[in-house]
Write a structure and sequence with these properties.
The chain has 127 residues and is mainly alpha-helical. It is built from seven helices and no strands. The termini are far apart. The structure holds zinc ion (ZN).
Length: 127
């Protein structure tokens, strides 16, 4: 691993751990330190990410069912981003194999399509 890659890896890990600590120790439903969704405030409709902060807080406390209830799309988003992160950090055969399937235009379009479908569906079904 090059020095630059090591610095990036340490920085990304530190930021992720700090964010996880903030969400672990602060409940977004009870705290005013978290940003409110501008789309929800302006339109009254949920955006695809609405509930993600509450879901993260619940997941960090082991309440996976609550996390899914707050934002079902996280079931798609979290594995996708973890694989994308692993693919970008791992420069060995495993990383290249993941990159061939995850970091492709087709996978990106599929992710965006699911994101939009989720956005529409959650507002129609009020989930
Ligand atoms: Zn939102």
């Amino acid at each position: 691993m090059t020095r630059r890659r090591t610095i990036i890896t340490i920085t990304v890990t530190a930021i992720a751990l700090a964010a996880a600590a903030v969400y672990f120790f602060n409940n977004p439903e009870q705290s005013n330190i978290f940003p409110r969704c501008p789309i929800k405030m302006l339109t009254g409709y949920d955006c695809p990410s609405c509930g993600a902060q509450r879901a993260l807080h619940a997941a960090l406390h082991g309440n996976i069912a609550d996390a899914i209830r707050y934002n079902l799309f996280l079931v798609v988003a979290v594995p996708f981003f973890l694989l994308a992160l692993a693919a970008s950090l791992l420069k060995n055969r495993v990383g290249r194999a993941i990159s061939l399937h995850i970091l492709t235009p087709r996978a990106g379009f599929a992710y965006i399509a699911l994101y939009i479908i989720w956005w529409i569906t959650r507002n129609i079904l009020s989930i």
